[in-house]
Inverse folding.
């Protein structure tokens, strides 16, 4: 199925997801872009807490770190506890779950998800870090090489729990891009690296160009998605105890950025062009739409937003689905957010 058709199918399903409102008005809301504006570029259609603290076939539904549109128009939701869920495109309800593991059978810290053109799943894990290709039933088919500097110390310069979070295919499907969540040791604290891989013969990937992206002070990069024109939607996120989450959505353009694969330390030096970014919205400015929070938040709508998928697009306007990672924590919520984004 072609990408546009897949996205149209998924978008139609999400637009019809009002059956998730059964638990009450706080679970989902109809849209009015003018009334629900987060910024001049972003509006909030609705949100849903319907999957919060639920189980499916004995597996906890939550810990979501990534979303993707599958080839049949359904949604795939990746848990960072080594599970990949298939969600109904109309109700978001789980319809299957596939367990994941590494080559030795150990659990992953699974964070990034891409569904490739043949239906296989490219999944990143923060542990090493790694990117593996899985079949639909969870068998490992391939493993991508990772540059040494991006590996967790002492093998490399990455900090534990700060490696590959975002994963996306650029338009045309020949270039894969992963975002580090935090800076490498020796790089400036707010500069994170985006690594690419180029598709080669046999469908394998080899490392390609690398780019530098400056995150806002105190924030990391939990997710990114390629737009149809080759730019990137980038989520930046942070948490302050007693205050709550900060989540911002940026439009970024890597096309004129310097290849930093040969630059040992990124310190903001002359001659290195960073990825240019433009703020689309700070989610704190979205209307709360009756949302409630289980811990202090500057806006009760906010939670630990970590996953993102583009579910539709037309003439510079995107439909974007976000999801929060509840960390299986009583004071956090698994929450889906449907946005409209103008780029």
């Amino acid at each position: 199925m072609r990408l546009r058709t897949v996205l149209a199918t998924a978008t139609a399903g999400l637009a019809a997801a009002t059956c998730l409102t059964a638990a009450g008005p706080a679970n989902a809301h109809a849209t009015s872009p003018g009334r629900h504006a987060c910024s001049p570029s972003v509006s909030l259609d609705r949100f849903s807490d319907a999957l919060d603290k639920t189980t499916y076939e004995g597996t906890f539904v939550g810990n979501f770190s990534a979303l993707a549109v599958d080839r049949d128009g359904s949604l795939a939701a990746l848990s960072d506890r080594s599970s990949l869920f298939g969600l109904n495109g109309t109700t978001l309800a789980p319809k299957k779950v596939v367990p994941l593991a590494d080559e030795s059978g150990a659990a992953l810290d699974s964070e990034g998800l891409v569904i490739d053109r043949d239906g296989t799943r490219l999944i990143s894990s923060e542990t090493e870090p790694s990117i593996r290709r899985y079949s639909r039933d969870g068998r490992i088919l391939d493993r991508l090489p990772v540059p040494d500097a991006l590996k967790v110390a002492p093998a490399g310069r990455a900090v534990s729990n700060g490696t590959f979070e975002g994963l996306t295919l650029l338009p045309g499907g020949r270039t894969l891009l992963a975002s580090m969540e935090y800076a490498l040791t020796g790089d400036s604290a707010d500069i994170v690296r985006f690594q690419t891989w180029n598709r080669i013969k046999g469908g394998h990937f080899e490392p390609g160009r690398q780019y530098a992206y400056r995150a806002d002070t105190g924030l990391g990069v939990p997710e990114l998605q390629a737009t149809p024109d080759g730019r990137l939607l980038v989520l930046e996120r942070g948490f302050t105890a007693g205050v709550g989450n900060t989540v911002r959505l940026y439009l970024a353009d890597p096309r004129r950025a310097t290849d930093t694969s040969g630059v040992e330390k990124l310190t903001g030096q002359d001659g290195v062009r960073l990825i240019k970014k433009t703020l689309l919205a700070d989610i704190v400015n979205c209307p709360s739409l009756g949302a409630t929070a289980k811990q202090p938040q500057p806006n009760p709508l906010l939670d630990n937003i970590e996953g993102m998928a583009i579910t539709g697009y037309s003439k510079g306007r995107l439909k974007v689905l976000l999801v929060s990672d509840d960390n299986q924590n009583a004071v956090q919520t698994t929450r889906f957010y449907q946005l409209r984004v103008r780029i």
Summary: Helices lie at 3-15.
